[in-house]
Amino acid sequence: MTVKRALLSGLTLIAVWLIGLDLLSSWNQPQVLSRIELYQSNLRLQASELQREDQNVMASKRALVEADPVKAALEQYQKAHQQTIQSLEQAQIAAATQDLDPDAARRSTEAELKLARLRDDLAVNLGLLQTAQADVAAALTTWKTAQKQIAQAQLPVNPKTQTQKEVLAVLVGLWSQPAQLLPEAEQTVRQALNGWFRDRALAQLYQLQQREDALQTLQATQQQAAQTAFESLAIISGIPVVSSLIGVGLLLFVIAQWFVQRKTALLAPETLPQWETPWDGEVIWQVLIFGFFLIGQLILPVVIGGLKQVGVLGFASANSEGQAAFILLNYVLLTVGSLGVLYWSIKPYLPLGGAWFRFNWGDRWWLWGIGGYFAALPLVIAISVINQKIWQGQGGSNPILPIALEERNNLAIIIFFVTATIAAPIFEEILFRGFLLSSLTRYFPTWGAIALSSLIFAIAHLSLSEVLPLTVLGMVLGFVYARSQNLLASMLLHGLWNSGTLLSLVILGAGQG
Predict the structure, then answer these.
(1) Is 2 helix (H, G, I), strand (E, B) or coil?
(2) What is the pTM of this model?
(3) Contact (CB, 8 A) for 172 and 147
(4) How far apart are CA 457 and CA 448, in angstroms?
(5) Which of 11, 185, 228, 383 has a Cα at 20 to 30 A from 257?
(6) In the chain, what's the furthest Cα-to-Cα distance?
(7) 3-state DSSP of 461-472
């Protein structure tokens, strides 16, 4: 065995171990999909307050909002609250039974803290929903249990935890018999709560204070917020529905074509191209381990950690723009390093003929990209429904997604869009489609290469809950690339997918104000 193969073998074992740990650590992490569902419920609650004379608007409202939005939201919050409690208990048991190194212990504490905050945020809103269902006793029990859990928690106290303690005390006072109005209750409610939940607490406060003018002002602002929520719901519900219908039509067309034309159809395996790969499996192995794992999982974190310690990357934690810029910088460095290893690995075989790493602006690549996006949408939605049943809201998510969901800074959002819709598609399509998929056709039929490269692409995102949906998305990306033999097509599809996801998150997040 050569020195390079021995090094590759050792790094592969480390990679499998670390990737396995990352996937296992995502086991107890909540999916962003769960948060999205709750945010959609929040918007429906807000939109349900809309009162308009226009019958068309009210008919559209009834189509977007359930007949009893409070009951539907209550069921979702109860489920999410219980799942979060279970995840936190499992994380605490895992931390107590494992001998963790300092870095792993820090990550474990951070994960517990996030889950505890989420549990308490859910408890606050859950109690308000219970009051709307005239179950004040259940609401008081929910809030007092949360107060007890915060008091007993062996976790660091921070401003977020302090705010949770304060708003819980305010809510318990507002709905107790007799009521207890705490000083600065209004300021605490406005600081800690959003949307329908804030308005419900303020309405109770103003009623107890007998402030009719404040109630009237609140009702007016509720109508403005309800109109905005209604418009947001129309966008995030209407666009996916229309796009999915187009996608179903495209899928039915290609399936029907396959039944009619068989060996000459778009789906026919016989017509999919195969690349003439001049290098062997060791080069593929080398690029994945040296280029993706060594650079992304070992070298880059060490370099960035060192730069942070000496203050070079102080902007990374200064504010939301700094955090977004740091994520983009990290992705750019990963791209430069990984693609540098790729170039170094295949340099002896250059120049390459055929359709290798092809960027052709002259053909109809944009049709393949747009059509692939429409076709991918119903497929990924369908597999996501199954996936949700499997993971029950757990399994982790891409760390950018929850940040984008809660972000309010316009510059930070723009940087996130640049990262997700430009940087990520360029890097991932060159590596996973341009190199990996094409290289694997040396050993597998093209459909097999598409499937295997898609699975590796999904695992590389390090979230258990995303493996199935991203594998399906990767297969559509691979099919589009194989058919068009143009990286621009799969990059466009990838960019459209990421931008659609981010746009939905931004709209949902903006609607929580």
Answers:
(1) coil
(2) 0.82
(3) yes
(4) 14
(5) 383
(6) 84
(7) CCCHHHHHHHHH
